[in-house]
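From the pipeline queue, job 12 of 40. The input is one protein chain; the requested action is below.

Action: predict structure.
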Amino acid sequence: TRIEIFLSFIISSIIIGIFLGIVNYLILSLFINLEIIEIKYFLYYLTIAIIFFSSLGCLIGFLSYTWDTQSAVSNFFVTPLNFLSGTFFSIQVLPESLKFLFLYNPYYYVVNFFRSCFYYEYEFKIYENFIILIFVFLSLFITGIIFFKGYRVIE
């Protein structure tokens, strides 16, 4: 059925993403001293990011007619989402007037908490994680509904 195909996309993305994350960790640990303090949170945030981006990729793939549409969504939505997530810099260096762009981006919290897994003073924040889970499962649910309804999907 369509739901089985959709779930196989998501599960295969999770398996591949976790495998690549572990391989990257092992290769980088040869060059620098990496230490994962909280392995369960490391895998949790890695899985959350994988689920979000795989469901987003499935959604874009289902709804787009051509590769131009896919690249437009990638250029104007996914890339700014990544750049406004604090991946490449800390938001502490930004002026207060620009911090709202980051604070309303759920992916910022995923990146921030994922980075915090490598620190000794990591603190699991339930409210922010609950908001992240709602956002990720909402994107997963919407993509599943679109796939189930069959809009631009393989018959």
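Job complete. The mean pLDDT is 83.
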